[in-house]
Automatic annotation (TrEMBL):
Monomer. It catalyses: adenosine(2030) in 23S rRNA + S-adenosyl-L-methionine = N(6)-methyladenosine(2030) in 23S rRNA + S-adenosyl-L-homocysteine + H(+). GO terms for molecular function: 23S rRNA (adenine(2030)-N(6))-methyltransferase activity; RNA binding. It comes from Candidatus Methylobacter favarea. The keyword Lipoprotein does not apply. This is Ribosomal RNA large subunit methyltransferase J.
Length: 280
């Protein structure tokens, strides 16, 4: 049974990196008039209240979106991310944080489509309510890693698959690599963005090696850490592995990540990594 609820973590430093990259990819896809298709394999509930319940328990957003909220000196792409988050808040006060489904919805045009998958029985209800009947969007109460295969390749022949698991079980790491390889075989031209947490560094090394061994080309990794790797409980860093990234993504991250590491890092311990896992 699934127990993970992303609301406990909404708007934290990992969400900042994940959603910053998500927005850059969507902005790239919007540059051409041709329709695109988005698949979000682990959608979550769609949006989060930062002023009540779960989010207030650990207040993780305070070392994430809150630290960026009032700043006017951010690199362009981070300012663009902030601008999208501001569109979900009616006042100067930060009370609401959009999840990946609502961020994608915000950037979807009339010609584009979005498919969402969520396994948790409460989260799927919240998700269905959050997307609020939109003919461009379909949400399924199903396993995203398996069920989305049937959509690949999408008729648009261009688009993004976002894979954002909660890694509740250790086998999730192997499962995502396997699924990614299968997806890429069906739709080699697609953009894929896989999120990972650094809780145990050895798992991430294995994940990277698995992707490199697959022979998939054009893979970049972007990681943001708030403290050095540690054996202690909790996530010290997180990253996104992007297959077929927009060509400007690495230079955007080159500007954004040093600034984010500085603002969000614990006592000067923040760090980042930009690495090509496989060339074109
Ligand atoms: N992408 C969301 C966002 O940006 O707001 C957060 C997603 S959260 C990290 C992961 C979600 O995946 C959880 O809501 C969990 O219930 C769901 N989940 C776990 N395994 C799944 C699977 N195999 N298929 C679909 N959803 C799954």
């Amino acid at each position: 049974m699934l127990s993970y609820r992303h609301a406990f973590h909404a708007g934290n430093f990992a969400d900042v990196l994940k959603h910053l990259i998500l927005i850059r990819i969507l902005e790239h896809l919007r540059k051409k008039n041709k329709p695109f298709c988005c698949i979000d394999t682990h959608a979550g509930p769609g949006q989060y209240a930062l002023d009540k319940d779960y989010a207030l328990k650990n207040r993780e957003f305070e070392n994430g979106i809150s630290k960026l909220w009032q700043r006017g000196d951010l690199p362009d792409c981070v300012a663009g991310y902030l601008n999208i988050i501001k569109q979900f808040n009616n006042s100067e006060r930060l009370t609401r944080y959009p999840g990946s489904p609502l961020i994608i919805k915000q950037l979807l045009r009339t010609q584009d489509r979005l498919f969402l998958y969520e396994l948790h029985s409460t989260e799927i209800k919240l998700l269905t309510a959050a997307i609020n009947k939109d003919r461009r969007i379909k949400a399924f109460h199903a396993d995203g890693l398996h069920s989305c295969m049937g959509l690949l390749p999408p008729i648009e022949r261009r688009g993004l698959v976002l894979i954002d698991p909660s890694y509740e079980i250790k086998s999730d790491y192997a499962q995502v690599t396997e699924a990614l390889i299968k997806m890429h075989k069906r739709f080699a031209g697609g953009i894929y963005a896989l999120w990972y947490p650094v809780v145990e560094r050895s798992r991430i090394r294995k994940l990277e090696r698995g992707i490199q061994a697959s022979g998939i080309k054009n893979v970049q990794l972007f990681e943001l850490g708030i403290k050095a790797d540690t054996g202690a409980y909790g996530m010290s860093a997180s990253g996104m592995i992007v297959i077929n990234p927009p060509w400007t993504l690495a230079s955007d991250m080159q500007q954004a990540l040093p600034v984010l590491a500085d603002i969000l890092g614990n006592n000067g311990e923040g760090f980042y990594r930009i690495q090509e896992l496989a060339g074109e």
